[in-house]
Amino acid sequence: MSKLLEIKDLHASIGGKEILKGVNLTINEGEVHAIMGPNGAGKSTLSAVLTGNPAYEVTRGKVYLKGQNLLAMEPEIRARAGVFLSFQYPVEIPGVSMTNFMRTAINAKREYEGKEPLSPREFLALMREKKKMLELPDKLNNRSVNEGFSGGEKKKNEIFQMAMLEPCLSILDETDSGLDIDALRIVAEGVNRLKTPENASIVITHYQRLLDYIVPDFVHVLADGKIVKTGDKSLALELEEKGYEGLSL
Amino acid sequence: MSEIIIHSGERFEQVYLNEPGLDLHFVQEAGSTLKIHVLNIPDGTSGDRDIEISNNIVVEQIGEGCETEIYALAHLQGEAHVTTETHVKHAVGGGKSNQLLKFVLEDQARGRFIGDLKIAPDAQKVEAHQTNRNLLLSETAEMRTQPQLEIYADDVQATHGASTGQLDESALFYMQQRGIDKEKARQLLVGAFMKEVIEAIGEQHSAVREQLLNAIDGVVE
Ligand SMILES: Nc1ncnc2c1ncn2[C@@H]1O[C@H](COP(=O)(O)OP(=O)(O)OP(=O)(O)O)[C@@H](O)[C@H]1O
Ligand SMILES: [Mg+2]
Predict the structure, then answer these.
(1) Are A79 and B177 within 8 A, CB to CB?
(2) A248 part of a folded domain
(3) pLDDT in tens, B117-142
(4) Sign of CA dihedral A120, A123, A125, A128
(5) Which chain A residues touch B168 with a CB distance below 8 Å?
(6) What is the pLDDT at residue B1?
(7) B111 FRET partner, CA 20 to 30 A, in A195, A236, B74, B206?
(8) Quick check: A79 and B173 CB within 8 A?
(9) Range of the domain at A178
(10) CATH code at A60?
Protein backbone atom coordinates (compact mmCIF):
# COMPACT_ATOMS: atom_id res chain seq x y z
CA MET A 1 0.00 0.00 0.00
CA SER A 2 1.57 3.29 -1.00
CA LYS A 3 1.42 6.54 0.86
CA LEU A 4 -0.99 9.08 -0.55
CA LEU A 5 -0.79 11.87 2.02
CA GLU A 6 1.73 12.53 4.73
CA ILE A 7 1.21 15.34 7.23
CA LYS A 8 4.18 16.00 9.50
CA ASP A 9 4.09 18.28 12.53
CA LEU A 10 1.74 20.73 10.83
CA HIS A 11 1.24 24.06 12.55
CA ALA A 12 -1.01 26.76 11.11
CA SER A 13 -2.54 29.99 12.23
CA ILE A 14 -5.13 32.51 11.19
CA GLY A 15 -5.05 36.16 12.12
CA GLY A 16 -1.95 35.47 14.22
CA LYS A 17 -3.77 32.83 16.30
CA GLU A 18 -2.32 29.33 16.21
CA ILE A 19 -5.03 26.77 15.42
CA LEU A 20 -3.15 23.67 14.29
CA LYS A 21 -0.52 22.75 16.82
CA GLY A 22 1.38 19.85 15.37
CA VAL A 23 -0.82 17.53 13.32
CA ASN A 24 0.67 14.22 12.18
CA LEU A 25 -1.27 11.94 9.88
CA THR A 26 -0.43 9.43 7.18
CA ILE A 27 -3.05 8.24 4.71
CA ASN A 28 -2.50 5.34 2.35
CA GLU A 29 -4.27 4.66 -0.89
CA GLY A 30 -7.60 2.96 -0.40
CA GLU A 31 -8.14 4.18 3.15
CA VAL A 32 -10.97 6.11 4.74
CA HIS A 33 -10.03 8.24 7.73
CA ALA A 34 -12.68 9.85 9.89
CA ILE A 35 -11.78 12.96 11.87
CA MET A 36 -13.99 13.87 14.76
CA GLY A 37 -13.51 16.44 17.46
CA PRO A 38 -15.16 19.27 19.36
CA ASN A 39 -16.31 22.49 17.71
CA GLY A 40 -13.42 24.83 17.08
CA ALA A 41 -10.79 22.07 17.35
CA GLY A 42 -9.33 22.93 13.95
CA LYS A 43 -10.92 20.35 11.63
CA SER A 44 -11.97 22.86 8.99
CA THR A 45 -8.67 24.64 9.44
CA LEU A 46 -6.90 21.42 8.51
CA SER A 47 -9.04 21.15 5.34
CA ALA A 48 -8.34 24.78 4.49
CA VAL A 49 -4.60 24.37 4.96
CA LEU A 50 -4.45 21.17 2.91
CA THR A 51 -6.26 22.88 0.04
CA GLY A 52 -4.16 26.05 0.20
CA ASN A 53 -6.69 28.59 1.46
CA PRO A 54 -4.71 31.86 1.49
CA ALA A 55 -6.40 33.05 4.69
CA TYR A 56 -4.29 30.58 6.70
CA GLU A 57 -0.58 30.65 7.35
CA VAL A 58 1.44 27.48 7.77
CA THR A 59 4.04 28.22 10.40
CA ARG A 60 5.70 24.81 10.66
CA GLY A 61 5.60 21.31 9.24
CA LYS A 62 5.40 19.52 5.93
CA VAL A 63 2.73 17.89 3.81
CA TYR A 64 3.40 15.48 0.96
CA LEU A 65 0.92 14.28 -1.64
CA LYS A 66 2.33 11.22 -3.39
CA GLY A 67 5.75 12.38 -2.27
CA GLN A 68 5.34 15.89 -3.64
CA ASN A 69 5.53 19.00 -1.49
CA LEU A 70 1.84 19.88 -1.33
CA LEU A 71 2.30 23.15 0.55
CA ALA A 72 4.38 24.59 -2.30
CA MET A 73 1.57 24.15 -4.83
CA GLU A 74 -1.02 26.78 -5.75
CA PRO A 75 -4.57 25.84 -4.67
CA GLU A 76 -5.66 25.10 -8.24
CA ILE A 77 -2.65 22.82 -8.81
CA ARG A 78 -3.47 20.87 -5.64
CA ALA A 79 -7.01 20.49 -6.97
CA ARG A 80 -5.82 19.29 -10.37
CA ALA A 81 -3.44 16.90 -8.66
CA GLY A 82 -6.52 15.36 -7.09
CA VAL A 83 -7.19 17.06 -3.74
CA PHE A 84 -10.87 17.77 -3.37
CA LEU A 85 -12.67 19.52 -0.54
CA SER A 86 -16.36 19.19 0.05
CA PHE A 87 -16.77 22.50 1.86
CA GLN A 88 -18.48 22.71 5.23
CA TYR A 89 -20.04 25.92 3.88
CA PRO A 90 -20.19 25.76 0.06
CA VAL A 91 -19.93 29.18 -1.57
CA GLU A 92 -22.67 30.72 -3.72
CA ILE A 93 -21.47 32.19 -7.01
CA PRO A 94 -24.31 34.19 -8.57
CA GLY A 95 -24.13 34.51 -12.34
CA VAL A 96 -21.77 31.57 -12.91
CA SER A 97 -23.73 28.60 -14.19
CA MET A 98 -22.99 25.07 -12.98
CA THR A 99 -22.29 24.06 -16.56
CA ASN A 100 -19.75 26.76 -17.19
CA PHE A 101 -18.12 26.27 -13.79
CA MET A 102 -17.89 22.50 -14.07
CA ARG A 103 -16.66 22.48 -17.65
CA THR A 104 -13.93 24.98 -16.81
CA ALA A 105 -12.90 22.89 -13.81
CA ILE A 106 -12.89 19.55 -15.55
CA ASN A 107 -11.02 20.77 -18.61
CA ALA A 108 -8.42 22.49 -16.44
CA LYS A 109 -7.80 19.15 -14.76
CA ARG A 110 -7.66 17.28 -18.07
CA GLU A 111 -5.18 19.77 -19.47
CA TYR A 112 -3.01 19.26 -16.38
CA GLU A 113 -3.13 15.52 -17.03
CA GLY A 114 -2.19 16.05 -20.67
CA LYS A 115 -5.63 15.03 -21.92
CA GLU A 116 -7.80 16.65 -24.57
CA PRO A 117 -10.69 18.77 -23.28
CA LEU A 118 -14.08 17.06 -23.25
CA SER A 119 -16.32 17.94 -26.17
CA PRO A 120 -19.60 19.65 -25.19
CA ARG A 121 -21.40 16.39 -25.95
CA GLU A 122 -19.11 14.27 -23.78
CA PHE A 123 -19.24 16.85 -21.04
CA LEU A 124 -23.02 17.00 -20.97
CA ALA A 125 -23.27 13.22 -20.97
CA LEU A 126 -20.94 13.08 -17.95
CA MET A 127 -23.00 15.74 -16.17
CA ARG A 128 -26.15 13.74 -16.82
CA GLU A 129 -24.64 10.51 -15.53
CA LYS A 130 -23.34 12.06 -12.30
CA LYS A 131 -26.50 14.06 -11.67
CA LYS A 132 -28.43 10.85 -11.89
CA MET A 133 -26.13 9.17 -9.41
CA LEU A 134 -26.85 11.91 -6.87
CA GLU A 135 -30.49 12.22 -7.84
CA LEU A 136 -30.01 15.88 -8.74
CA PRO A 137 -32.54 17.65 -10.98
CA ASP A 138 -31.86 18.24 -14.67
CA LYS A 139 -32.25 21.97 -14.36
CA LEU A 140 -29.08 22.09 -12.26
CA ASN A 141 -27.00 22.91 -15.36
CA ASN A 142 -28.39 26.38 -15.85
CA ARG A 143 -28.49 27.37 -12.22
CA SER A 144 -25.80 29.54 -10.73
CA VAL A 145 -23.33 27.65 -8.55
CA ASN A 146 -25.03 27.00 -5.18
CA GLU A 147 -27.15 30.13 -5.49
CA GLY A 148 -30.41 29.68 -3.66
CA PHE A 149 -29.68 25.98 -3.04
CA SER A 150 -30.97 24.59 0.23
CA GLY A 151 -28.38 23.43 2.74
CA GLY A 152 -28.86 19.81 1.71
CA GLU A 153 -28.75 20.60 -2.02
CA LYS A 154 -25.45 22.39 -1.53
CA LYS A 155 -23.94 19.32 0.12
CA LYS A 156 -25.25 17.06 -2.64
CA ASN A 157 -23.78 19.47 -5.15
CA GLU A 158 -20.38 19.12 -3.48
CA ILE A 159 -20.46 15.34 -3.90
CA PHE A 160 -21.71 15.77 -7.45
CA GLN A 161 -18.61 17.87 -8.18
CA MET A 162 -16.47 15.23 -6.51
CA ALA A 163 -18.02 12.61 -8.77
CA MET A 164 -17.26 14.77 -11.81
CA LEU A 165 -13.65 15.41 -10.85
CA GLU A 166 -12.71 11.96 -9.49
CA PRO A 167 -10.13 13.14 -6.95
CA CYS A 168 -7.48 10.92 -5.39
CA LEU A 169 -7.93 12.55 -1.99
CA SER A 170 -11.33 13.83 -0.96
CA ILE A 171 -11.89 15.72 2.22
CA LEU A 172 -15.52 15.77 3.26
CA ASP A 173 -16.03 18.49 5.83
CA GLU A 174 -19.31 17.78 7.61
CA THR A 175 -20.95 16.75 4.38
CA ASP A 176 -23.63 15.02 6.47
CA SER A 177 -24.81 18.11 8.30
CA GLY A 178 -28.06 19.45 6.94
CA LEU A 179 -28.90 16.32 4.96
CA ASP A 180 -32.21 14.59 5.39
CA ILE A 181 -32.21 10.82 5.80
CA ASP A 182 -32.67 10.05 2.11
CA ALA A 183 -30.11 12.60 1.03
CA LEU A 184 -27.63 11.20 3.53
CA ARG A 185 -28.03 7.75 2.02
CA ILE A 186 -27.69 9.09 -1.54
CA VAL A 187 -24.60 11.09 -0.67
CA ALA A 188 -23.00 8.23 1.23
CA GLU A 189 -23.74 5.77 -1.58
CA GLY A 190 -22.21 8.25 -4.00
CA VAL A 191 -19.07 8.50 -1.91
CA ASN A 192 -18.84 4.72 -1.62
CA ARG A 193 -19.25 4.24 -5.35
CA LEU A 194 -16.39 6.65 -5.99
CA LYS A 195 -14.09 4.64 -3.76
CA THR A 196 -11.24 2.85 -5.53
CA PRO A 197 -8.11 1.06 -4.28
CA GLU A 198 -6.09 4.11 -5.39
CA ASN A 199 -7.96 6.96 -3.76
CA ALA A 200 -8.62 7.88 -0.16
CA SER A 201 -10.90 10.11 1.87
CA ILE A 202 -10.88 12.14 5.02
CA VAL A 203 -14.36 12.29 6.46
CA ILE A 204 -14.91 15.03 9.03
CA THR A 205 -18.07 14.50 11.01
CA HIS A 206 -19.69 14.94 14.39
CA TYR A 207 -21.96 11.93 14.04
CA GLN A 208 -21.61 8.19 14.01
CA ARG A 209 -24.59 8.01 11.65
CA LEU A 210 -22.54 8.91 8.56
CA LEU A 211 -19.92 6.34 9.53
CA ASP A 212 -22.56 3.61 9.45
CA TYR A 213 -22.63 4.22 5.70
CA ILE A 214 -19.07 5.28 5.00
CA VAL A 215 -17.12 2.86 7.13
CA PRO A 216 -13.77 4.30 8.20
CA ASP A 217 -10.53 2.36 8.51
CA PHE A 218 -9.37 4.81 11.16
CA VAL A 219 -11.04 7.31 13.44
CA HIS A 220 -9.00 10.24 14.75
CA VAL A 221 -9.93 12.72 17.41
CA LEU A 222 -8.68 16.23 16.75
CA ALA A 223 -8.76 18.43 19.82
CA ASP A 224 -7.13 21.79 20.32
CA GLY A 225 -5.15 21.57 17.10
CA LYS A 226 -3.73 18.09 17.56
CA ILE A 227 -4.72 14.52 16.93
CA VAL A 228 -5.13 13.26 20.47
CA LYS A 229 -6.44 9.79 19.81
CA THR A 230 -6.62 7.32 16.94
CA GLY A 231 -8.59 4.12 16.79
CA ASP A 232 -10.70 1.98 14.52
CA LYS A 233 -14.41 2.47 13.82
CA SER A 234 -15.32 1.47 17.35
CA LEU A 235 -13.79 4.73 18.60
CA ALA A 236 -16.62 6.65 16.92
CA LEU A 237 -19.16 4.52 18.79
CA GLU A 238 -17.35 5.10 22.04
CA LEU A 239 -17.39 8.85 21.42
CA GLU A 240 -21.08 8.82 20.61
CA GLU A 241 -21.68 7.18 23.96
CA LYS A 242 -19.30 9.04 26.22
CA GLY A 243 -18.57 12.33 24.44
CA TYR A 244 -15.15 13.92 24.25
CA GLU A 245 -15.12 14.55 28.00
CA GLY A 246 -15.23 10.86 28.71
CA LEU A 247 -12.33 10.11 26.42
CA SER A 248 -9.43 8.40 28.10
CA LEU A 249 -6.32 9.88 26.57
CA MET B 1 -26.89 67.42 -29.13
CA SER B 2 -29.32 65.34 -31.13
CA GLU B 3 -32.85 65.37 -29.78
CA ILE B 4 -34.94 62.28 -30.21
CA ILE B 5 -38.64 62.44 -29.63
CA ILE B 6 -40.42 59.25 -28.68
CA HIS B 7 -43.97 59.84 -29.70
CA SER B 8 -47.04 58.93 -27.75
CA GLY B 9 -47.36 55.18 -27.27
CA GLU B 10 -44.13 54.42 -29.12
CA ARG B 11 -41.36 52.17 -27.97
CA PHE B 12 -37.68 52.84 -28.62
CA GLU B 13 -34.82 50.52 -27.72
CA GLN B 14 -31.20 51.01 -28.71
CA VAL B 15 -27.84 49.43 -27.92
CA TYR B 16 -24.83 51.73 -28.05
CA LEU B 17 -21.84 49.43 -28.17
CA ASN B 18 -18.38 50.93 -27.76
CA GLU B 19 -19.34 54.33 -29.08
CA PRO B 20 -16.59 56.92 -28.68
CA GLY B 21 -18.89 59.00 -26.48
CA LEU B 22 -22.58 59.82 -26.49
CA ASP B 23 -24.59 62.95 -26.20
CA LEU B 24 -28.24 61.97 -26.34
CA HIS B 25 -31.36 63.86 -25.52
CA PHE B 26 -34.66 62.01 -25.43
CA VAL B 27 -38.05 63.56 -25.03
CA GLN B 28 -40.81 61.12 -24.14
CA GLU B 29 -44.43 61.80 -24.89
CA ALA B 30 -47.30 60.18 -22.98
CA GLY B 31 -47.24 56.40 -22.70
CA SER B 32 -43.94 55.96 -24.52
CA THR B 33 -41.22 53.53 -23.62
CA LEU B 34 -37.50 54.18 -23.86
CA LYS B 35 -34.86 51.55 -23.24
CA ILE B 36 -31.19 52.16 -23.88
CA HIS B 37 -28.03 50.18 -23.26
CA VAL B 38 -24.76 52.06 -23.14
CA LEU B 39 -21.93 49.55 -23.28
CA ASN B 40 -18.30 50.59 -23.06
CA ILE B 41 -16.62 47.21 -23.07
CA PRO B 42 -13.53 47.42 -25.27
CA ASP B 43 -11.55 44.18 -25.52
CA GLY B 44 -8.55 45.66 -23.78
CA THR B 45 -6.21 45.76 -26.75
CA SER B 46 -3.72 48.56 -27.41
CA GLY B 47 -5.54 51.87 -27.99
CA ASP B 48 -8.47 50.93 -25.75
CA ARG B 49 -6.33 51.17 -22.67
CA ASP B 50 -6.17 54.95 -22.61
CA ILE B 51 -9.56 55.92 -23.99
CA GLU B 52 -11.41 58.83 -22.47
CA ILE B 53 -15.10 58.65 -22.96
CA SER B 54 -17.89 60.82 -21.81
CA ASN B 55 -21.53 59.83 -22.08
CA ASN B 56 -24.25 62.35 -21.49
CA ILE B 57 -27.80 61.07 -21.48
CA VAL B 58 -30.76 63.32 -20.97
CA VAL B 59 -34.30 61.98 -20.72
CA GLU B 60 -37.37 64.10 -20.20
CA GLN B 61 -40.73 62.55 -19.57
CA ILE B 62 -43.15 65.24 -20.69
CA GLY B 63 -46.25 63.06 -20.98
CA GLU B 64 -47.90 60.84 -18.40
CA GLY B 65 -47.31 57.12 -18.01
CA CYS B 66 -43.88 56.92 -19.64
CA GLU B 67 -41.32 54.24 -18.95
CA THR B 68 -37.58 54.76 -19.10
CA GLU B 69 -34.91 52.11 -18.68
CA ILE B 70 -31.24 53.02 -18.79
CA TYR B 71 -28.58 50.33 -18.61
CA ALA B 72 -24.90 51.14 -18.72
CA LEU B 73 -21.84 48.96 -18.45
CA ALA B 74 -18.20 49.92 -18.61
CA HIS B 75 -15.29 47.49 -18.34
CA LEU B 76 -12.05 49.43 -18.43
CA GLN B 77 -8.37 48.66 -18.30
CA GLY B 78 -5.12 50.61 -18.35
CA GLU B 79 -5.66 54.32 -18.00
CA ALA B 80 -9.13 54.30 -19.53
CA HIS B 81 -11.61 56.77 -18.16
CA VAL B 82 -15.35 56.78 -18.62
CA THR B 83 -17.78 59.33 -17.28
CA THR B 84 -21.46 58.60 -17.67
CA GLU B 85 -23.99 61.25 -16.79
CA THR B 86 -27.68 60.60 -16.71
CA HIS B 87 -30.22 63.36 -16.36
CA VAL B 88 -33.67 61.94 -15.95
CA LYS B 89 -36.49 64.37 -15.50
CA HIS B 90 -40.02 63.43 -14.61
CA ALA B 91 -41.88 66.58 -15.59
CA VAL B 92 -45.27 64.92 -15.14
CA GLY B 93 -46.67 62.20 -12.93
CA GLY B 94 -47.37 58.52 -13.37
CA GLY B 95 -44.05 57.68 -15.00
CA LYS B 96 -41.44 55.09 -14.24
CA SER B 97 -37.70 55.16 -14.61
CA ASN B 98 -35.17 52.50 -13.80
CA GLN B 99 -31.41 52.85 -14.12
CA LEU B 100 -28.73 50.21 -13.63
CA LEU B 101 -25.14 51.25 -14.19
CA LYS B 102 -22.16 48.98 -13.60
CA PHE B 103 -18.47 49.74 -13.85
CA VAL B 104 -15.66 47.18 -13.77
CA LEU B 105 -12.33 48.91 -13.31
CA GLU B 106 -8.90 47.36 -13.65
CA ASP B 107 -5.38 48.77 -13.47
CA GLN B 108 -5.53 52.56 -13.17
CA ALA B 109 -8.91 52.86 -14.86
CA ARG B 110 -11.30 55.48 -13.61
CA GLY B 111 -15.05 55.58 -13.71
CA ARG B 112 -17.46 58.31 -12.85
CA PHE B 113 -21.21 58.29 -12.64
CA ILE B 114 -23.26 61.40 -12.25
CA GLY B 115 -26.88 60.49 -11.72
CA ASP B 116 -29.18 63.43 -11.81
CA LEU B 117 -32.80 62.62 -11.12
CA LYS B 118 -35.50 65.25 -10.99
CA ILE B 119 -39.11 64.80 -10.08
CA ALA B 120 -41.12 67.98 -10.65
CA PRO B 121 -43.48 69.30 -7.95
CA ASP B 122 -46.65 68.04 -9.62
CA ALA B 123 -45.23 64.78 -10.85
CA GLN B 124 -47.04 62.50 -8.40
CA LYS B 125 -47.04 58.66 -8.42
CA VAL B 126 -43.66 58.49 -10.08
CA GLU B 127 -41.52 55.40 -9.52
CA ALA B 128 -37.82 56.08 -10.05
CA HIS B 129 -34.92 53.78 -9.26
CA GLN B 130 -31.22 54.35 -9.75
CA THR B 131 -28.65 51.67 -8.99
CA ASN B 132 -24.91 51.92 -9.43
CA ARG B 133 -22.72 48.86 -8.76
CA ASN B 134 -18.98 48.83 -9.25
CA LEU B 135 -16.21 46.31 -9.11
CA LEU B 136 -12.65 47.45 -8.50
CA LEU B 137 -10.09 44.89 -9.62
CA SER B 138 -7.01 46.77 -8.53
CA GLU B 139 -5.97 49.03 -5.69
CA THR B 140 -5.28 51.84 -8.13
CA ALA B 141 -8.61 51.82 -9.95
CA GLU B 142 -10.98 54.55 -8.91
CA MET B 143 -14.72 55.10 -8.97
CA ARG B 144 -16.68 58.23 -8.20
CA THR B 145 -20.44 58.21 -7.84
CA GLN B 146 -22.35 61.45 -7.59
CA PRO B 147 -26.08 61.05 -7.26
CA GLN B 148 -28.10 64.25 -7.46
CA LEU B 149 -31.65 63.68 -6.45
CA GLU B 150 -34.07 66.55 -6.68
CA ILE B 151 -37.46 65.31 -5.66
CA TYR B 152 -40.14 67.93 -5.29
CA ALA B 153 -43.26 65.76 -5.38
CA ASP B 154 -44.27 63.92 -2.21
CA ASP B 155 -46.29 60.95 -3.43
CA VAL B 156 -43.43 59.17 -5.23
CA GLN B 157 -41.28 56.10 -4.85
CA ALA B 158 -37.67 56.95 -5.50
CA THR B 159 -34.62 54.90 -4.58
CA HIS B 160 -30.93 55.30 -5.10
CA GLY B 161 -28.29 52.69 -4.31
CA ALA B 162 -24.57 52.67 -4.95
CA SER B 163 -21.92 50.19 -3.95
CA THR B 164 -18.31 49.61 -4.87
CA GLY B 165 -16.54 46.40 -3.97
CA GLN B 166 -13.92 43.86 -4.85
CA LEU B 167 -14.19 40.29 -6.09
CA ASP B 168 -15.47 37.81 -3.54
CA GLU B 169 -12.36 36.10 -2.16
CA SER B 170 -14.26 33.06 -0.94
CA ALA B 171 -15.75 32.52 -4.41
CA LEU B 172 -12.29 32.83 -5.94
CA PHE B 173 -10.91 30.22 -3.57
CA TYR B 174 -13.88 27.91 -4.13
CA MET B 175 -13.18 27.94 -7.87
CA GLN B 176 -9.46 27.44 -7.36
CA GLN B 177 -10.28 24.45 -5.18
CA ARG B 178 -11.99 22.96 -8.22
CA GLY B 179 -8.86 23.43 -10.34
CA ILE B 180 -9.73 26.73 -11.99
CA ASP B 181 -6.75 29.08 -12.03
CA LYS B 182 -7.09 32.44 -10.38
CA GLU B 183 -7.12 34.45 -13.61
CA LYS B 184 -9.89 32.32 -15.11
CA ALA B 185 -11.81 32.46 -11.83
CA ARG B 186 -11.59 36.25 -11.92
CA GLN B 187 -12.88 36.24 -15.49
CA LEU B 188 -15.84 34.10 -14.52
CA LEU B 189 -16.75 36.39 -11.62
CA VAL B 190 -16.35 39.54 -13.70
CA GLY B 191 -18.47 37.97 -16.46
CA ALA B 192 -21.14 37.09 -13.92
CA PHE B 193 -21.15 40.67 -12.68
CA MET B 194 -21.49 42.09 -16.20
CA LYS B 195 -24.10 39.61 -17.42
CA GLU B 196 -26.99 41.21 -15.56
CA VAL B 197 -26.68 44.34 -17.69
CA ILE B 198 -26.27 42.49 -20.97
CA GLU B 199 -29.18 40.17 -20.25
CA ALA B 200 -31.44 43.22 -20.08
CA ILE B 201 -31.09 43.74 -23.85
CA GLY B 202 -34.45 42.95 -25.46
CA GLU B 203 -35.42 40.55 -28.25
CA GLN B 204 -35.17 43.21 -30.92
CA HIS B 205 -31.41 43.26 -30.36
CA SER B 206 -31.00 39.62 -29.44
CA ALA B 207 -28.16 39.05 -31.92
CA VAL B 208 -25.84 41.48 -30.17
CA ARG B 209 -27.02 40.27 -26.76
CA GLU B 210 -26.20 36.64 -27.55
CA GLN B 211 -22.87 37.59 -29.09
CA LEU B 212 -21.88 39.46 -25.93
CA LEU B 213 -23.11 36.70 -23.64
CA ASN B 214 -21.17 34.11 -25.62
CA ALA B 215 -18.06 36.23 -25.37
CA ILE B 216 -18.49 36.10 -21.59
CA ASP B 217 -19.32 32.42 -21.32
CA GLY B 218 -16.90 31.14 -23.93
CA VAL B 219 -19.40 28.85 -25.60
CA VAL B 220 -23.08 28.37 -26.03
CA GLU B 221 -24.65 26.52 -23.15
N1 LIG C 1 -10.33 34.62 11.13
C2 LIG C 1 -10.13 34.01 12.31
N3 LIG C 1 -9.47 34.65 13.31
C4 LIG C 1 -9.27 34.05 14.49
N5 LIG C 1 -9.70 32.81 14.78
C6 LIG C 1 -10.34 32.12 13.83
C7 LIG C 1 -10.59 32.68 12.54
N8 LIG C 1 -11.24 31.76 11.81
C9 LIG C 1 -11.40 30.68 12.60
N10 LIG C 1 -10.87 30.90 13.81
C11 LIG C 1 -10.85 29.97 14.95
O12 LIG C 1 -10.17 28.81 14.59
C13 LIG C 1 -10.62 27.74 15.42
C14 LIG C 1 -10.77 26.50 14.58
O15 LIG C 1 -11.85 26.64 13.70
P16 LIG C 1 -12.29 25.46 12.72
O17 LIG C 1 -13.30 26.04 11.80
O18 LIG C 1 -11.09 24.85 12.12
O19 LIG C 1 -12.96 24.44 13.74
P20 LIG C 1 -13.72 23.08 13.45
O21 LIG C 1 -12.98 22.01 14.18
O22 LIG C 1 -13.93 22.87 12.01
O23 LIG C 1 -15.10 23.32 14.19
P24 LIG C 1 -16.62 22.87 13.80
O25 LIG C 1 -16.78 21.49 14.33
O26 LIG C 1 -17.46 23.82 14.57
O27 LIG C 1 -16.79 23.00 12.34
C28 LIG C 1 -11.91 28.22 16.08
O29 LIG C 1 -11.65 28.48 17.43
C30 LIG C 1 -12.23 29.49 15.34
O31 LIG C 1 -12.88 30.40 16.16
MG1 LIG D 1 -15.56 22.87 10.79
Answers:
(1) yes
(2) no
(3) 999 999 999 999 999 999 999 999 99
(4) negative
(5) 91, 93
(6) 63
(7) B206
(8) no
(9) 3-242
(10) 3.40.50.300
Q: How much is the average pLDDT of B198-204?
A: 96
Q: For residue A247, tell me if it sits in a domain.
A: no
**Tell me: the pLDDT tens digits for A29-86?**
999 999 999 999 999 999 999 999 999 999 999 999 999 999 999 999 999 999 999 9
* Side chain identity, residue A224: D
Domain residue extents for chain B: 3-166, 167-221
Which ligand is located closest to the Cα atom of residue A39? 1
Among B179, B193, B219, beta carbon nearest to A79: B179
- Per-residue pLDDT band for B51 (boundaries 50, 70, 90) equals confident
* For range B166-194, the mean pLDDT: 96
CA A205 to ligand 2 centroid distance, Å = 9
**What is the C-alpha to C-alpha distance for residues B212 and B13, in angstroms, rounded to an integer?**
17
Closest ligand (CA of A173):
2
Residue of B nearest to A95 (CA): B192
Rounded to two decimals, what is the model's pTM? 0.91
> What average pLDDT score do residues B58-68 get?
97
pLDDT in tens, B145-154: 999 999 999 9
Which of these, B48, B12, B14, B19, lies nearest to B33 by C-alpha position? B12
Pocket residue to mutate for ligand 1, from A10, A23, A44, A224, most atoms within 8 A of Cβ: A44
Strand positions, DSSP E, B29-65: 33-40, 52-61
> What sign for the dihedral angle of Cα A209, A210, A216, A218?
negative
Using a CB-CB distance cutoff of 8 angstroms, which residues of chain B are in contact with residue A171?
none
Per CB-CB distance under 8 Å, the chain B contacts of A91 are: 168, 170-171, 173-174
Task: List the beta bridge partners of residue A110.
Answer: none
**CB contact A41 to B (< 8 Å):** no
* ipTM above threshold 0.90: yes
What's the rounded mean pLDDT across residues A14-32?
97
Give the closest residue to B215 by CA, choosing from B42, B50, B80: B42
Interface with chain A: mutation pick from B167, B169, B176, B178, highest number of A CBs within 10 Å: B178
Give A197: exposed, middle or buried? Use CB within 10 Å, 0-12, 13-18, 19+. Answer: exposed
Q: Number of structural domains, chain A?
A: 1
Asked whether A204 lines ligand 1 (CB < 6 A), one says no
* d(CA A83, nearest CA chain B) in Å: 8
**Residue A249 counted as domain residue:** no
**Cβ of residue A15 closer than 8 Å to a chain B Cβ:** no
